[in-house]
Amino acid sequence: MKKLITLLACFILTDCPSGNRAVYDNDGWISINGNRVCYSGDKKEVLTSYYLESYEGNKPNIVLSSGYPLVNLSYPNTCFNVYVKSGVRYTALYILDGLKYRYSFILDTDGNAIKL
Question: pTM for the whole thing?
Answer without folding.
Answer: 0.77
